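Lab channel / #folding
Pinned by the channel admin:
"Please post every new chain as: sequence first, then the structure tokens as a reply. Keep commentary short and put observations after the output so the thread stays searchable."

First post following the new format, from NK:
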Amino acid sequence: MRTRNPHNRDIYVKVNNILLRVQQFYARRPAQTRGMPDFALKPAALFDRQIQFFMAGLGRKHDDACARAQASSCWKARLAAETIVDCARSLIASAA
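Reply from TO:
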């Protein structure tokens, strides 16, 4: 039967403190938003199946405007603030 080493807890506390410091350091840094260049992505796709999924969209321009939906139906886009307020009202009404 193995006996517990009383120093194991100290090791866990030290590791936990290190991880907390690392987490705090990265929490202050902004997230990276740079894209990976195509020439670097193509060889990486040979080894990673998840990257292969994005290979079909390389070089394409995506239009995020809602003009086509507005033209084909009576749908109209709302402001983000209005949407959030309506969602909150709906949640309050459903909870009552």
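NK: The first helix runs from residue 8 to 28.
TO: also worth noting, Residues 66-96 form one domain.
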